[in-house]
Here is the input.
Amino acid sequence: MGLTGSVLIISALLIPAFPSSQAVYDLVILNGRVIDPESRSDSVRNLGISNGIIKTISSNTLRGRAVIDARGLVVSPGFIDLHQHGQDEENYRFKAMDGVTTALELEVGTGDIDAWYAQREQKSLINFGVSAGHLAARMAAMREPVKFLPTGDAARRAATDAEIDEMKRSLEEGLKRGAVAVGFGIQYTPNASRWEILEMFRVAARFGASCHVHMRHAGVKEPGSSIQALEEVISAAAITGAPLHVVHIQSTGGPATPKLLQMIGEAKLRKLDVTTECYPYIAGMTDIKSAIFDDGWQEVFGIDYKDLQWAATGERLTKETFAQYRQTGGMVAVFSMTEEVVTAAIKSPLTIIASDGILENGKGHPRTAGTYSRILGKYVREQKALTLMDALTKMTLMPAQRLERRVPSMRNKGRIRPGADADLTIFDPQSISDRSTFQEPARYAEGIQFVIVNGVVIVRDGQLEPAGHPGRPVRAPH
Here is the structure.
């Protein structure tokens, strides 16, 4: 392929004296197959980038202080992950190597918006953002230490009216401080009343914030099925006017996933603002101490101890080891889905791709490092379950559109057009693939050749660059 994927950095001293009419860009990308889901364009073009912004798209040769020859490669908008729990340097490295330029923690969220953003400002490889979390607000209202997930009173008892009022104030303050959305993990708080959830939706609606919801129930067992759970949150959206986003539809729905997707499609036909997401794996992952594993979980998910895998060691659990780890807490993979369910969700025109990822010291779920490469390798190239254009739409444009009403800056992400942010992912469609596994989740994806965040190259020739911290906050006006 010759120059495929090579970069030429030209010293400022060596730049020739171009004619004054010839613009010289900070970075030029030549000869790439540029795919823009917004315009549905797919053609070989050259891009000129300056000051972190796409300035021009041209079939003519462009001049740049730095040049990437993307011959034989796809140039896509950078991938946007709406559901990424791991929000630190370790996780950002794996996201970048999977082509992600913006990773947002919108399901669990946080209780202190200002502190969360301050921790990452000018310290992040990729763009970052967070929701105001109902779980955090509930833990604080019940005077429980605010952790990732509740395990004490906040996980298991009904709230008083005074506590609900305190939660509302907490979410309102977070939204005033620029939270991207409101996050819910209702299955982790099974005794939260329907009224409590409605009250939180009412707060979100006042701010035009989407509600990113892990629903109350999973599976098909009635009462307490995923269908009933979806009815609850679609009703909450209809009553309050809050936009609804249902997280990981396939892991919550299991065999009922096609029915849930039908319900969402019908709600959209009736002009309700409802979206959803999925990830391309047959197992989820969560904390073994959470309320999800209270008595009756086997019947809910249609699985048993052998279908649980302890993240720290890779071992499958038994009744005895389940009881042991339930006392200590930690992440466990839950093999509760079939490949048929996962494929149906991925193929649906309703679903956004989002990872639900988190790695801690190299342990966790392979979706953190492999979600986007797996879609492009397994489901586009190998299985042809999706076209490349449709897959990229689910990974770039659709997540940007979900948020742009509340966060206007998202109108310049997920697109390749003049004026858009220079967040770009350049990959080889013939070799892109995920390498992370449940045994070895901390393995970089292959085939992502270049990743550019706000005009700065952070992955070059398939290797992470010491590029500093070009990631910027994704935040609502405040």
Notes: The chain is about 30% helix and 25% strand. The first helix runs from residue 89 to 97.
